[in-house]
What we know:
Bound molecules: flavin-adenine dinucleotide
Radius of gyration: 23 Å
Number of strands: 19
Amino acid sequence: MRNIAIIGAGAAGLFAAEMFSADNHLTITVFEKAQKVGTKLRASGGGRANLMNTQIDGACYNHPDFINNLLKSVDYKVIKNEFEKMGLRLTADEEGRVYPGTLFSQTVIDVLLHNLGEKVQIITDFEVKKLQNSNGKWRVNEEKVLYDDILLASGSPAGMIAKNRQSYNSYLSDLKLVETEQVPSLVGFKLKKYPKELSGCRARAAVTLLQDGNAVFTEIGEVMFKDDGISGIVVLNVSAHYNRLKTKENCSLSLNFLYDDETFDVKGYLKKFGDLSGLLHPKLNRFYQKNPFNLRNFQMEIAGLYDMEFAQVCHGGISLDEVDDKFALRRYPNLYAVGELLDIDGVCGGYNLFFAFASAYRATKAILGNS
Ligand SMILES: Cc1cc2nc3c(=O)[nH]c(=O)nc-3n(C[C@H](O)[C@H](O)[C@H](O)COP(=O)(O)OP(=O)(O)OC[C@H]3O[C@@H](n4cnc5c(N)ncnc54)[C@H](O)[C@@H]3O)c2cc1C
């Protein structure tokens, strides 16, 4: 019997456990520091879990080449097939976002746990603080059991309050892996000289990230105005591209509220109707009356990103140089790192959960010797 341990019962850890459970020559233990498994998976997609996307492409991630290489062996169809083998019915919307057929994230967790059976032991309320190598095998904390292979699937501190982030992934420090700085991503922007009276307003706009006045990235969607900045899916995607910039100097956002009608005559409209109440959200209209602005280029300077607590993912993590294409750590035998623990982040649309599943799939196959 080979002894396998998985650190973290999140999306990647549970998916890997389910795959391992089909092999009768393995004993599998999952260590989870929280009381419940799958917390982030449950919260994903507003409780619906946007699991993946039919149009997965390297360009949707911060390291396109790494992802394109992974896609050669594990693409959307492979993961879809695995879920269908587990009995999970999937549904995709017009934009290719894939959800459980129930549109209920708990279904995914239930299906994964149901398929584990009794072979997999999940120990909750157990924080892995140390990993020690003993003659090629691994010890978890001070436990007696030695493990042949360990899958590190302990995620990132995104979405956590500061107190819970302090000791997050402390077991990694002994391993001395190269890690890139972790910063919040898929998160809103705080803006300088932000007009607070817009708080609570929603508007569709083309949002452009500018650096030194040059357009870096543009996407259209609904913008949500907060007390000191803006959010909404389109803004979260802009944050992913902002994080990819080498420096964050001289960055601003430009909002084009007339992106769908470049010939619209604002002056003529104002002359005819007196204000923009038929065109803009009431708060934006009132703001415009006091401070007329360019509806095609409403610019605000970026002050920074909202805190990690509000982020859906982390930009940064264990450097990709530390893993091979099967997610094995290059400098340690029999240790694998998958999911958001690694320096991979994608935009909104199911790309981050897909990476958690696909990396877990690839590592699991390698451990099972099937790769
Ligand atoms: C609000 C929100 C909405 C999201 N929506 C989507 C979406 O719709 N689609 C999408 O693709 N992505 C979404 N994401 C991102 C996605 O949830 C994550 O990228 C994904 O869950 C990462 O999976 P993971 O297995 O790597 O980490 P996680 O799912 O975070 O799992 C890691 C697990 O390890 C445990 N752990 C950590 N340290 C230890 C330790 N030392 N010992 C033992 N256990 C430990 C943690 O408690 C956790 O259970 C969302 C994220 C958030 C916060």
